[in-house]
Amino acid sequence: MGNNTYPPYFNLTMFVNIGTYRYPTFVLCLLLYALIVLANFLIIVVISQEKTLHEPMYFFIMCLSINSLYGSAGFFFRFLRDLLYDTHLISRSACFTQTYVIYSYASYELTILGIMAYDRYVAVCQPLHYHNKMTSKLVSKLVTFAWIYPAFSVGTCVYLASRLPLCGNKIPKVFCANWPIVKLSCISTVINNLVGMLVSTTTVFLPLAFVLYTYARIFLICRKRSSEFKAKVIQSCLPHIITFVNYSITVFCDVALSRIDLENLNPFLAVILSLEFVVIPPILNPLVYGLKLPEIRKLILKMLSGPKPDKQTKSHK
User: Fold this and answer.
1) G-protein coupled receptors family 1 profile domain: from which residue to which, for each copy (predicted)?
2) Total structural domains in the chain?
3) R_g of the chain, CA atoms, integer Å
4) What is the spatial distance between Cα 205 and Cα 130, in angstroms, rounded to a whole number?
5) pTM (two decimals)
6) Which among 52, 6, 29 is positioned nearest to 296, based on CA atoms?
7) Which one of 39, 103, 195, 280 is at 20 to 30 Å from 308 when CA atoms are compared?
8) Are the C-beta atoms of residues 105 and 71 closer than 8 Å to each other?
9) 269: containing domain
10) CB 243 within 8 A of CB 291
């Protein structure tokens, strides 16, 4: 096969020519990325340093923040560079690397949310057995599985895509993605499709179904309990529900976008819908958990306000 079947570069075609607005847009996106890094880093520091937060639920929240830093770095470093250039060519190796990072980030997010749903289920439905079930050993195993399986499964999809001979190099997105690359193939992609369906089922639909199942069980338990109990459950579970619903919507948008002809959409709308997937969860998650969970909120406010002056020092003044 000729070298043209393995193009050395891909062309990201969904960047809109914004002319003189490129620099304000770059500054705005850079500030957004800085906010993502700051907010998630703050959550990580607070949970890791405060011993009272060394519990499974907060450890999972910290994992979400680590994953947000990982995924946003895989997207923003390249995206910010592309905003300043007229051409949007990306090398073959860089494209497949970005594809791997972004989609492993997406899979990590869903598996972690699934584990968090199980944690909330045990806490609400089996509170007397919570500490016996959610041991540090089990938590370590769950988190390890949540990272290793997506890394392997997404890696398999990206590897199979990298082996395909391609009849083009145009990717109608603002970042590299697996399915648009597979659609460029000159040969049958039956194996890629089957593996992709298996990976999607195990890393997307099974975690989503499990979360829905656990919250159905929690809802049935709450129906029979007091208003005070319901209020405590809502306070504990609401951040996770918001995160789950938000991420489900962004995943749906990404899946829907990958199955339609983006070039027929309004270019600004196509770019905005593409950005939802990699921008909204990393910025929303730390805001939701930082504002909704009082234990984290108090510690963040305490950290931001700085140490209080000593009473003895005040009296001397």
Assistant:
1) 39-289
2) 1
3) 22
4) 26
5) 0.86
6) 52
7) 39
8) yes
9) 9-297
10) no
